[in-house]
Structures are given as structure tokens and as C-alpha cells.
Design a protein that fits this description.
CATH architecture: Roll
Radius of gyration: 14 Å
Strand content: 35-45%
Number of strands: 6
Order of helices and strands: HHEEHEEEEH
Structural class: alpha+beta
Number of domains: 1
Number of helices: 4
CATH topology: Nuclear Transport Factor 2, Chain: A
Strand order of the largest sheet: 2-1-6-5-4-3
Length: about 140
């Protein structure tokens, strides 16, 4: 499964739209018992979300302050059941008009081809360390 997970993830990002997650759509990559941990917004404390509905709820919270947002995959690191994706997110804040642009990372843990654990990191090196993939 090592290389297959990289291809699953790359394929996922080619068609991923965060708005789909917010509606609970495009969840086929995720185990129904998924655990997602993340700071949805930079000034919030990390929180745990469970299952597809938890991921959808976290995504709605993440998208709420933005008029529109885009996410672009920069790279995937690793080849096994623990991968790190690095992406650039950007968007205009709904109430202030300020343009946000930041690089962040996800740690993805797979089992039997499904994501069982997902965590957001503001620092790529922290994500790599958590995955055991330090560069």
C-alpha cells in the first residue's frame, strides 16, 4: 500500500474542493471513524473532530471567515501509511477584506487505503516529525 497511498492522495487533491468537505461530500478517501485534529484558524486551539460529520463541521468553521478560498498542493512527502502534504491556502477575509496566504501541512495516516487520522500543522517540519519523516 505504500506507493498507492501517495497516488490516492495526489488524485484526491486534483479534484478536491474544500466546499465539498463542508457539505460532507467527497469523503470516500476517509474511514468513517476518522479522527481529525487541527487548529481550524490560526488563533484557535487545536480541537479533535470525529467521523465524516466532524470533518465537515471543522471545514465549515475553517471556511466561514472567507469570501472565497483556494488550496494548492505543493508536495507530498513519504511513501507509506503516514504521509505529509504541504499546501498553500489563500483567501480574502469576509469582514476585513484582508488577503490571507499561508503554507500549512497535513499529516495523513492510512489503514487499508483509507485515511484514519488527519492533523493540520502550521509548520511543515512539525508535521514531518510527527509522521517520522523528518527531512
Amino acid at each position: 500500500m505504500s506507493r498507492e497511498n501517495v497516488e490516492r492522495l495526489r488524485s484526491f487533491f486534483q479534484t478536491w474542493n474544500p466546499s465539498e468537505w463542508a457539505r460532507g461530500e467527497n469523503m470516500s478517501l476517509f474511514d468513517p471513524d476518522l479522527v481529525y485534529e487541527g487548529d481550524v484558524l490560526p488563533d484557535q486551539a487545536a480541537e479533535s473532530y470525529r467521523g465524516h460529520e466532524g470533518l465537515a463541521r471543522a471545514t465549515r468553521q475553517w471556511l466561514e471567515p472567507f469570501e472565497g478560498s483556494t488550496v494548492e498542493l505543493e508536495r507530498i512527502i513519504g511513501t507509506g501509511d503516514a504521509l505529509v502534504s504541504v499546501q498553500r491556502g489563500s483567501g480574502r477575509m469576509r469582514h476585513t477584506g484582508i488577503q490571507m496566504d499561508r503554507v500549512y501541512a497535513y499529516l495523513w495516516r492510512f489503514r487499508d487505503g483509507k485515511v484514519t487520522y488527519l492533523k493540520t500543522f502550521g509548520d511543515t517540519q512539525e508535521a514531518l516529525k510527527a509522521a517520522g519523516l523528518e527531512e
